[in-house]
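Could you please review the protein record set out just below?
***
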Amino acid sequence: MHNMLMGPLWGEILVVSIAGVITLACFAAMFWWIFRPGEKDPRHPKYAILRRDR
């Protein structure tokens, strides 16, 4: 039985692959900004979260 909401196979592969690439890019940016935040001000609020003693 063919589902009427199902599209062509290549279209589905394209959508899933684009969503996967975007997801991987978001995870890469997340880890980059966690370990290399770029902010040097020691009073910045993120340093209260990322302190060495936690």
Summary: The longest helix spans residues 9-35. The chain has a mean pLDDT of 82. The helical segments are 9-35, 46-49. DSSP finds two helices and no strands in the chain.
